[in-house]
Every structure is written in C-alpha cells, then in structure tokens.
Specification:
Elements lengths: L1 E5 H4 L15 E6 L8 H10 L2 E6 L7 H15 L6 E4 L6 H10 L7 E3 L2 H8 L4 H9 L5 H22 L8 H8 L6 H12 L1 H12 L2 H4 L6
Parallel strand pairs: 1-2, 1-4, 2-3, 4-5
C-alpha cells in the first residue's frame, strides 16, 4: 500500500498503525517547518518495518501547499505505473476531489482511500492478510459488562489456584493450570487429559485431583 501522509495536518495521531507497516508498503511524510517533530516510537516503527520510507518538506508556505504536493506526488506515482492501493492520510476534506478525479474522471480509474491514520487506511484497504485481520480484531467493540464479568471470574480462579497450590511443588505452575480451566472445551475429560499432557502422568493426576476436590472450582465449573 502507498501512504501519502499530510503530517502537518494529522501529526502523531495520524501515524497510529505504523507498527503494522511491512516491506510491501511505501510511505511518504509531507511536512513543513511548522510541524517537523515525530515521536521516536513512530520513527522506530517506520525504519524497522522494512517499508520504503521517504520525507518531503514544503519549500514555501502557502494555503493548501502541502495538499498540492500530495496530489502531485500521487499523480506522478500512478502515472509511472504504481498499481497498489493509495491512501491519503489527512483530516482535510479537500482531498475528496482528488479521490473523485481518480475514481470518476480519470481514464485510468483508481481507488483512492482517504483516512485519518495509517491503521484505518490499512483496514479500509480490505486486503486479505494477517495484519488487516489483526487490526479488525483489536478494533472490535466488546460488551463492557460481559468483558468485566469474564475478567472478574478469571481473577477469582487465579486467586483460588494460588491458594490451592501454595506450598506445593506446583505453586509456580498456576498460570499453566489456569490455562487448562479456561480452555474452549472445559469437560472433565478434556481437563484431565490436558493435565496429563502438560504435566506428565504423575503430576497431571495430582493436579487434576486437587482441582476436582476443590469446591470453589467445581461450584463454578460443572465440567470438573
């Protein structure tokens, strides 16, 4: 993907998603003396991503000057044969006219994405790859009450297991034990077999027996 970033307009918030860039991306930061400082973590992400990265500084100030730079560069790249997905990262609504030109008036019709940050641009690109799937998953809206209820139960089980195995040879293994109880499949057979697989027959049997005999666990896990 091609990211033409109006940095004077979006500043650091517009760089959100820099950590998802890869070697197939081309990033150009358009900036001026008025806005030429970028957070270290953003620059580190850019340089470590393997993307093609360059900067373009405004020579003379003027109304919408950087917008003209971006529009000109986009035309130059498309004209020279760029076939990827271009993303203009800006909050300036004026770039709608650039998108309209390439999508409706240009003889070589091209989809142009307008986005306020890199991350949203990647999602809007709708590519069938892991980074797009990962970002969509992270941006998924969850029910706060259900999420907190699950968190509270997780903390309860953690405390129960720490007390249950305190002073035993298994007290450092409570995270792994909890992972078994929180698996997708929670039947007693699966928990039993998982204990044996993870800890060996002797230790697995001992751990499973303590879990099975613990009322604080069995009362909330009918599977055990």
């Amino acid at each position: 993907m091609l990211f033409l970033i109006d940095y004077e307009n979006v500043s650091n918030p517009g760089m959100k998603g820099s950590e998802y860039l890869d070697s197939e991306d081309y990033v150009i930061l358009f900036y001026s003396d008025a806005k030429k400082h970028v957070e270290r973590r953003v620059l580190d992400a850019l340089t470590s991503s393997g993307c093609t990265y360059e900067i373009c500084k405004l020579c003379k100030t003027g109304k919408n000057a950087l917008d003209f730079y971006i529009a000109s560069k986009l035309g130059e790249l498309i004209g020279s044969g760029y076939e990827g997905i271009p993303v203009i990262v800006s909050k300036d609504s004026g770039f709608q006219s650039v998108r309209d030109y390439w999508e409706k008036r240009s003889p070589h019709k091209k989809r142009i994405i307008l986005s306020q940050c890199i991350e949203t641009g990647i999602v809007s690109g709708n590519e069938n790859n892991e980074r797009t799937k990962e970002i969509r998953k992270l941006r998924e809206n969850l029910n706060l009450e259900k999420h907190y209820s699950a968190y509270a139960e997780q903390m309860r089980i953690k405390n129960v297991l720490q007390k249950l195995f305190e002073g035993t040879e298994y007290e450092t293994m409570t995270e792994e034990i909890q992972g078994i109880l929180e698996g997708k499949e929670k039947s007693s057979r699966v928990i039993y077999l998982s204990s044996l697989h993870l800890f060996g027959r002797k230790n697995g049997l001992a751990i499973y027996k303590k879990i099975k005999d613990c009322e604080e666990l069995t009362s909330s896990h009918s599977c055990v």
